[in-house]
Amino acid sequence: MTTLDISTPGPASATGDAVLSFEGLDVTFKTEFGDVHAVKGIDLEVRPGEVVALVGESGSGKSVTSMTALGLLPRNARINGTVRVGDKTVNALDGKALRDMRGNDVAMVFQEPMTALNPVLTIGDQLTEGLQLHGIAFGKQATARAAELLAMVGIPEPERRLKQYPHELSGGQRQRVVIAMAIACDPKVIIADEPTTALDVTVQAEILDLLRSLKDKLNTGILLITHNMGVVADMADRVAVMLKGDLVETGTADQVLNHPRHEYTKRLLAAVPHLGAGPGQFGDVAAVTAAPEDLPALDLRNLVIEYRRVGKPTFRACDDITLSVAQGEIVGLVGESGSGKSTIAKCALGLIPAASGSVSLLGNDFRKMRGKELKAMRRRIGVVFQDPASSLNPRLPIGDVIAEPLVVHKEGDDKSRRRRVLELLDAVELPRSVYNRYPHELSGGQRQRVSIARALTLDPELLVADEPTSALDVSVQANVLKMFTALQERYKFACLFVSHDLAVIDLLAHRVVVLQNGRIVEQGPREEVLHHPREEYTQRLIAAAPVPEPLEQRRRREARHALLAQLGDDVTELHVEDDYERPQPRQDEGGNASGLGGFMTDAGN
Amino acid sequence: MSDIRNSNPDGEDYEPQIGPASTDAVGLAAGGSAAPLPGEDKSYSQGQLVARRFFRHRGAITSMIVLGVIIVVAFTSIGIGPIPGWWPKDYTLQYDKIGDGAPTWEYPFGQDTGGKDYFSLVMRGTQFSLIIAFAVGIISTVVGTLIGALAGFYRGWIEAILMRITDVFIIIPLLAVAAVLGRMAGDSGIWGLALVLGLVTWTSLARLVRGEVLSLRERDFVLAAQAVGTGAWRIITKHVLPSAVGVIIVSATLSISSAILLETSLSYLGFGVQPPDTSLGTLISEYQAAFTTRPWLFWWPGIMILTIALCVNFIGDGLRDAFDPRQNRTKD
């Protein structure tokens, strides 16, 4: 474990020659503003039954690298070097050979299953399409094989599911369907591009379990592209770290995650918030100083929020929510997608009305206010949204963006506004020169700093932050969190911090509220909820969050499996029957003719 | 390095206030504030990007020049109103005919049946057509944008009413409405006609803007503005419409070219500009019988209409490409 020898080959499970290899891969894109050198000569290989994680921040070229393996880069890309899948050299193949290779030799699992699946085709149509195109099975045979595939990835009632459309399945089931499509033609290697980024953490754990059993049972190589170090620790045999188109470090998961050699890897790992480490990872949060008799900054009592829908019964997004945020306190609102956490945040901002219950800010009931009073109240709340790219008006320069709240509330003159903006730019550690720049000229982290600065323009007593760091890269997230804690210490605002990332909540929040399906499951001080959870749902949630340390993650994974067994749930895995036959494409019939025939018989059925 | 970066806004009277954590918080260089700004040596505002792409569109630039020349010549040659132009002949006077009135050096566009100078007539017609086209373009754009933005932003019953009004305008045959109203407005001259045409052609833009606003109003920056307490009017004018400006400008140019054609067809049918005034459509309708015997009487106004409409369409095309970078057609 303490060895630092990088040249050690992968674990024993990886045998045979590489199924996917990049040799001196170099990709340049021709754009309007000159050439962009996206990948700068990298060497990497994936062996059967091995998971190689390609790690890097956005723009490091990891997705571009993986797309070259499928020959799917846009036309303005210039590719040098060799990409080999099995015994085929991808850059030497013509259109037809490429199409034959895709699916048969190499398959892809995409990030967002909702967009990767065609919404107007049934699951069955999409699964059988690949089988028929590659001449593996036709008509009823293909349908039977599709059902078999769905059963393999653990989808109950596969025959019924074949007739359903993607929107009828949950996010996790959709991703299982995408995986079933990927293994349909039994490829040698699967490229998984951020396969769990769009999923909730409990679902992520299931999908990772599935992928792990897939490589064990089918001996498929997996190139896993991710930015999540926890996922790397959970899955990878070997890790390759990419920075600006270069591979800066490769090695086994243990070598890279526990004994990083390159500066960048060290920085990257240091930037990952560690669940269980508590506050202080990126600066200290000020202790709550408000006396109990002080009015709470935000007080929600028996709040019910409903969405009225045309032609359907009203949807109750939040039910009986009671929570309060004391002055100067950070309350973390945690939950999976659809749990109603963003809805609560919007209601606290007065953007959507409450169906019943009360929302009060510093003792004033939001629901009783109108017009001027409401506007005056709004200046005491700041807001930071998730996606900095869409929360800043693209047509306004940064200076105007930050000064906008002052203009709206008619505060000060041009000079004093400018002074306030410069003061805030200093506070969020941005150079003053961004004053005249436009949002699209800044990086994601810089944009999020701008939106935090805007939220603080009017010195709010309450800040509502809706997933403020989840669209950012880890190192950028670390910077923003550091700055956030420093600002909180300085301005002492209360904060409702919405996040799905338990580790971020763990290092920021004083108190934590856990939501599920619009109801509060558990709430209390951070240590109690996150370190000694009482409720089953909280336990599952915490058990499913991966940590960036392979050995600890293995322990956590086993503990999670034990917890699932104790709760009476199955651990997700690939179900391979003993008589499972590996599909063989019918080479003798010739691709085109058989493909067409397949369509005809299918249409005839 | 760009000049923007150096031109700090003047904050002389402001002392920098360094936050407690500002020194050690910049530990991670990647993406942090210490890192240089992206694209430092070439930074463009959105407007500059659009202009850059537009000026690369050869068709649009050529059309701009041609249209510019036509406008300048049309207005300076015979003058407008009381201001005299450089062309010596008057479009109302009849001169002695040279031969059958075919183009000569004296009369470059020829002479009409009564001996009038056809060049000054065509220029007069072009003036009217251009005035109507641009007036219609502006009126329909303002009305369409306003109605579309209000409907898209407020939704609910305001949207229902405005869009049903739009539907009513769409289902009535444009030419029939324009003909009737144009006749009635004919007494008030070309401005009346332009107003009427503008008030019946805003519908497609209203729908486009509404669609655009519907998607923009869901963006987080609009939500952020609302959370600050920004009023609806300010949100519409400052946050929503500037982002829809691409759609609006493109649609405005295209409505200008269709207004030229609409005016032409109205005048051809006899409902548009009334004699003794003239427009390109009136000229064509007046001399259509002369097409075989004296073709220049038909071709000159015809070519004018074609050129103006083509130019405006090309400019609209160039603008659309410039505003929508996704249609990345690199031409070099």
From TrEMBL, chain A:
The keyword Transport applies. It comes from the Bacteria. Signal peptide: none annotated. The keyword Kinase does not apply. Residues 578-589 have a biased composition (Basic and acidic residues). GO terms for cellular component: plasma membrane. Residues 578-605 are annotated as: Disordered. Residues 22-269, 298-542 form the ABC transporter domain. Pfam families: ABC_tran, oligo_HPY. One of its GO terms (molecular function) is ATP hydrolysis activity. It is found in: Cell membrane. It is a peripheral membrane protein. PANTHER family: DIPEPTIDE TRANSPORT ATP-BINDING PROTEIN DPPD, OLIGOPEPTIDE TRANSPORT ATP-BINDING PROTEIN APPD. Belongs to the ABC transporter superfamily. This is ABC transporter ATP-binding protein. It comes from Promicromonospora citrea.
UniProtKB/TrEMBL annotation, chain B:
Residues 1-32 are annotated as: Disordered. GO terms for biological process: transmembrane transport. The keyword Magnesium does not apply. The chain crosses the membrane at residues 61-83, 128-154, 161-182, 188-209, 240-262, 297-316. Keywords: Cell membrane, Membrane, Transmembrane, Transmembrane helix, Transport. It is found in: Cell membrane. GO terms for cellular component: plasma membrane. It is a multi-pass membrane protein. CDD domains: TM_PBP2. InterPro entries: BP-dependent_transpt_permease (IPR050366), MetI-like (IPR000515), MetI-like_sf (IPR035906), OppC_N (IPR025966). Its main location: membrane. Residues 126-316 form the ABC transmembrane type-1 domain. Belongs to the binding-protein-dependent transport system permease family. This is ABC transporter permease. It comes from Promicromonospora citrea.
